Amino acid sequence: MKTIGVLSDTHLTTPDPDWVRQVTRAFSGVDLVLHAGDLTDLRVLDALSEFSVLAVSGNMDDHLVIQSLPTKRVIELEGFRIGLIHGWGAPQGIEDRIRNEFEQVHCIVFGHSHRPTNHVEDGILFFNPGSAGKTWRSSGTVGIITVDKEITGRIIEL
Length: 158
Description:
The chain is 17% helix and 33% strand. It is of the alpha/beta class. It has one domain: Purple Acid Phosphatase, chain A, domain 2 (4-Layer Sandwich). A five-stranded mixed beta sheet has the order 3-2-1-9-10, with no helix packed on it.
């Protein structure tokens, strides 16, 4: 069994120590962390340096992030294929758009909409951890995906 910490849409230039502590606590014991884009700045990855992190760029990332990270990737773990992408366009229809970016995946991790999503459709887990950055609406959310005999996810409020 493997556990994956998942975050997206941090929209941070300088991660605040309180935020780093909250995310570190939420991800305690994970095997891997996935960031689904809109880091805004590479310092977000530096703040998560105690973890093994795989990330993709998003539409709000600065030029250094875009040059450093791919727009999508596929991670193979315990016999499962996980697609990682940020997403684009209106929240309506985002799952249809991102589904077409991957072949033969068991899970698609995405961001962009800032809306936590955790459901299976046509055998694919669609998982969006929501926005890990604090907003006027929320203290932020992240997620945990468990890879065992199947892939399951859960959303965590920071």
